[in-house]
């Protein structure tokens, strides 16, 4: 049994940064302070109507269809325990029958008579007799069977079912981790793509203003036709970037609806997982992951279940002892009005001698399956190790990228101011200003992306350690307890309704 160790993969269209530039100082000064804080403020509204990251995760935890389906699967596996326990319990059945029987019997009787002294005259007669009889044969039989010894089959089947329940719970815990990570990623993707779209729209407005002023300066003889063409080309590119950003946002919104179950409206800024929940070092995280990750636990339970299957199959080679008892009542069995009551109690001993080699083959097959599960458990361990290393590196990289982007923004602002002043005295061209402005905008987009990556990477690292859960995150939800259903059905001897009443 394998589990998804970390595995969140997200693909989107590559978003190139816009080209922005203007020779007008008021326009440049207006865009310069337009940093990441302003981007985040675009999607922030009044606290009363805003959606938080923890609120979105709580919504996904309670309503995600994939997660609810996995919970139902655990309840399905829970029922295997009472099914295995049924091997210890008696079995009883009642059989009844009834019908009509008609019997008609014909017989012939020959009689002879002799008259005369000499015996010359003989008289022969035949007499026909007919007998009719109808009965209503009916009856009922109540039989009981009780297993006394089956070579350990029932005992091992119960143990195997209990191990499979534990494996299903760990698989559910792993699914919860992945759903929470997917939901956090979808939340941050919407925030990032909304911010990028607003940047692109602002960029188009600035480029339109730049083109307008370039035409004014061209009319005054200050610039050439080349400057106008450059501004027009950048404006066309900027409009294309707006369309691309809108498409990326629509994709992220659709993903959000799929995972969280509602429209992404009024999202507040997301924050990374608290440092106290994350490992202090990569080595510490690796130890935690190898000992606590649910994917590894599920795989190890799968190994145990496969080893128990070997014992279950092998038990067919051992003798079996059982008790069989029955009581019956019959009417009209032989003639109308008769009654017959019978009862029996038998101790049956079955000793298998040779069954054609089937059980031997199935035993060898079960052993190979156990070897396969052990190999798969090693694969899962390797996946968890790789996921932990990757998540740790991504988080550290995102932190470094944030610092780099912030430094790039500060220096790009200085460069843009200098290029703008040099352009005023004729030492720089319009293209130089446009390029400098694009560098600044690229840095701001990179910062927004790095902030998103840091939040997502923190959740991915918590998942890689096996600790990403609603309880650990403190979500305002009623935590699903899989043990409740298992305890309710484990010792049930009958009943068609589920514990929920269905």
From TrEMBL:
The chain crosses the membrane at residues 27-45. Pfam families: OEP (PF02321). Keywords: Cell outer membrane, Coiled coil, Membrane, Transmembrane, Transmembrane beta strand, Transmembrane helix, Transport. Residues 395-453 form a coiled coil. Belongs to the outer membrane factor (OMF) (TC 1.B.17) family. Its main location: membrane. This is TolC family outer membrane protein. The keyword Ion transport does not apply. Residues 1-20, 94-117 are annotated as: Disordered. It comes from Bosea massiliensis. Residues 103-112 have a biased composition (Basic and acidic residues). It is found in: Cell outer membrane. The keyword Coiled coil applies.
């Amino acid at each position: 049994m394998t589990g998804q160790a970390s595995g969140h993969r997200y693909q989107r269209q590559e978003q190139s940064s816009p080209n922005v530039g203007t020779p007008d100082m008021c326009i440049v000064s207006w865009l310069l302070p337009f940093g990441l804080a302003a981007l985040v403020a675009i999607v922030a509204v009044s606290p009363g109507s805003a959606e938080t990251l923890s609120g979105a995760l709580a919504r996904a935890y309670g309503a995600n269809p994939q997660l609810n389906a996995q919970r139902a699967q655990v309840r399905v596996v829970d029922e295997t325990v009472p099914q295995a326990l049924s091997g210890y319990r008696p079995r009883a059945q009642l059989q009844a029958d009834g019908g009509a029987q008609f019997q008609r019997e014909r017989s012939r009787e020959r009689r002879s008579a002799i008259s005369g002294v000499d015996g010359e005259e003989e008289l022969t007669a035949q007499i026909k007799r007919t007998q009719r009889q109808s009965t209503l044969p009916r009856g009922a039989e109540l039989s009981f069977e009780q297993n006394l010894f089956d070579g350990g089959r029932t005992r091992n089947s119960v143990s195997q079912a209990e191990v499979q329940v534990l494996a299903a719970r760990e698989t559910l815990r792993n699914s919860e981790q992945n759903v929470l990570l997917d939901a956090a990623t979808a939340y941050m993707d919407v925030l990032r793509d909304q911010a990028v779209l607003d940047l692109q729209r602002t960029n188009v407005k600035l480029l339109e203003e730049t083109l307008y002023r370039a035409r004014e300066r061209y009319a005054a003889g200050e610039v050439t036709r080349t400057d106008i063409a450059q501004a027009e080309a950048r404006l066309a590119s900027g409009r294309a970037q707006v369309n691309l950003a809108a498409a990326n946002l629509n994709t992220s919104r659709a993903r959000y609806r799929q995972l969280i179950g509602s429209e992404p409206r009024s999202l507040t800024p997301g924050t990374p997982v608290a440092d106290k929940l994350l490992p202090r070092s990569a080595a510490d995280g690796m130890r935690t992951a190898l000992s606590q990750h649910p994917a590894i636990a599920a795989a190890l339970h799968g190994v145990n279940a496969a080893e128990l299957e070997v014992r279950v199959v092998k038990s067919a080679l051992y003798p079996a002892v059982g008790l069989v008892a029955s009581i019956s009542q019959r009417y009209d069995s032989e003639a109308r009005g008769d009654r017959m009551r019978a009862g029996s109690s038998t101790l049956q001993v079955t000793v298998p001698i040779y069954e054609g080699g089937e059980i031997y083959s199935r035993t060898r097959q079960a052993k190979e399956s156990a070897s396969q599960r052990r190999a798969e458990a090693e694969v899962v361990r390797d996946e968890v190790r790789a996921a932990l290393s990757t998540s740790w590196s991504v988080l550290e990289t995102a932190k470094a990228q944030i610092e780099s982007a912030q430094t790039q923004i500060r220096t790009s602002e200085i460069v843009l101011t200098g290029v703008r002043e040099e352009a005023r005295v004729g030492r720089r061209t319009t293209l130089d200003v446009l390029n400098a402005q694009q560098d600044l905008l690229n840095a701001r987009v990179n910062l927004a992306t790095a902030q998103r990556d840091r939040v997502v990477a923190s959740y991915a690292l918590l998942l890689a350690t096996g600790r990403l859960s609603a309880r650990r995150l403190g979500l305002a939800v009623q935590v699903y307890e899989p043990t409740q259903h298992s305890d309710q059905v484990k010792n049930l001897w009958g009943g068609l309704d589920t514990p929920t009443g269905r």
